[in-house]
Amino acid sequence: MKVIYDKQTDTLTIIFSEDAVVESDEGKPGVILDYNADGDLVALEILNASERIGHPYQMEYQIVPAEA
């Protein structure tokens, strides 16, 4: 997984897979979902990210431990 914030275009992109994008859908205005040939989600793009997300250039990543 890769997360990219482009300050110049104010776009936040989360890439889940390097698969080729064959279809894109604007789920909600300014939120673009990219899909591969199997219909699996490949990437999510948020336009005007600084208006939608408090700090698009900061990220916290957590892994929840498995229950014993």
Q: Give the strand order of the largest sheet, numbering strands 1, 2, ... along the chain.
A: 1-2-5-4-3
Pairing-aware structural class of the strands and helices?
mainly beta
Please bin the fraction of helical residues: under 10%
Tally of alpha and pi helices:
1
The biggest beta sheet is recorded as: 5 strands, antiparallel
The Rg value, from CA coordinates, equals: 14 Å
What string, H for helix and E for strand, traces the elements in order? EEEEEH
Instruction: Write down how many β-strands occur, each being a DSSP E stretch of 2 or more residues.
Output: 5
Arithmetic mean of pLDDT? 93
Portion in beta strands: 35-45%
Domains (count): 1
**Quick one: overall form?**
flat
How far apart, in Å, are the first and last alpha carbons? 27 Å
| Regions with little confidence, pLDDT below 50 for 5+ residues | none
Describe the protein in words.
The protein is 6% helix and 40% strand. The protein is mainly beta. The longest helix is centred in the last third of the chain and has 4 residues, at 49-52. It has one domain. It has one helix and five strands. The protein starts with a strand and ends in a 16-residue tail after the last helix.
